[in-house]
Specification:
By secondary structure, the protein is α/β, with parallel strands linked by helices. Helix content is 43%, strand content 12%. It has ten helices and eight strands. It has an eight-stranded parallel beta sheet. β5, α7 and β6 form a beta-alpha-beta unit. α4 (93-106) packs parallel to α6. The longest helix has 16 residues, at 246-261. It starts with a strand and ends with a helix.
Length: 263
């Protein structure tokens, strides 16, 4: 089984614009024109991907409920989907706990946060309410991490939070630090941090990417495409070029996430 552990989806009416905004934010030409659930399934399944972790990010508190309802509805329609909810820092702690509890009962399996889009620092005490709620309901948090233009999601900030909340589970997207791949030693020794490969392989040398996976352990990595930024077949081709054994590739492509999400 192959699992795409990092995919964004949007309602049909806004998918084109949302995809365009992401491309502008990163100054990257998007591989696919609109990140709908249908296009994700079409693109992913044609490449041999079986399941997909789907999410979207709220940039205002007002968007949280509608986004979570959308993710849950798409997961209900498509059993291939594993849904991660969104939250926003302007919600009170009580409101966050209420939403997490409700979404967990409805089948949500994790939380996705994007500090750079949402404009909060991972290690700011004002957002510790996210981590208390996630810990209470045993939900992992998938963070966008890293960007050399901003401080919000620097690797050292996520490492700080992982130490402060040792019972929580965190996933650092983009090898734990988009365009900050020389700053990843802060994760050494942290047993509650995992990583995905999304939006990294197009930029990393094969030897360096392989060395990062070996350094932190193949069991801590998940394959991800960051749909709609990259086409699934192209990301799989890049991944298969890594200097890993076939068994190591198998675990990263699916088994690691299956084991992780069952915890």
């Amino acid at each position: 089984m192959i699992i795409d552990a990092h995919a964004h989806i949007y309602p049909q009416k806004i998918a084109g614009k949302a995809t365009e905004v992401i491309g502008e934010f990163y100054d990257i030409k998007m591989s696919l024109p609109a990140g709908t659930a249908e296009r994700l399934l079409e693109n992913g399944k044609s490449a041999g991907i079986d399941r997909f972790v789907v999410h979207s990010v709220a940039t205002t508190a007002h968007q949280v409920d509608s986004i979570n309802a959308f993710i849950l509805s798409e997961c209900e329609k498509h059993p291939e989907f594993i849904g991660f909810m969104t939250l926003h820092q302007d919600l009170s702690e009580e409101e966050i706990f209420e939403r997490v509890e409700s979404c967990v009962k409805a089948g949500i399996r994790g939380i996705k946060l994007h500090p750079d889009f949402q404009k909060f620092s991972i290690d700011d005490e004002s957002v510790f309410k996210f981590y208390r709620a996630a810990g209470e309901f045993s939900l992992p948090i998938l963070f966008h991490t890293g960007d050399n233009r901003y401080e919000y999601s620097k690797p050292y900030k996520m490492a700080t939070v992982a130490k402060l909340f040792p019972k929580n589970r965190f996933i650092g997207a983009h090898f734990g630090g988009y365009r900050c791949w020389d700053e990843l030693d802060v994760y050494k020794g942290l047993s509650n941090v995992w990583f995905d490969t999304s939006s990294s392989l197009p930029f990393l040398d094969v030897d360096f990417a392989t060395s990062l996976i070996k350094k932190f352990g193949t069991e801590r990595f998940f394959f991800g495409t960051d749909f709609p930024m990259w086409k699934a077949d192209e990301e799989l081709l890049r991944f298969m070029k890594l200097k890993l054994t076939e068994r190591e590739k198998e675990t990263i492509l699916g088994e690691n996430f299956l084991s992780f999400i069952k915890k």
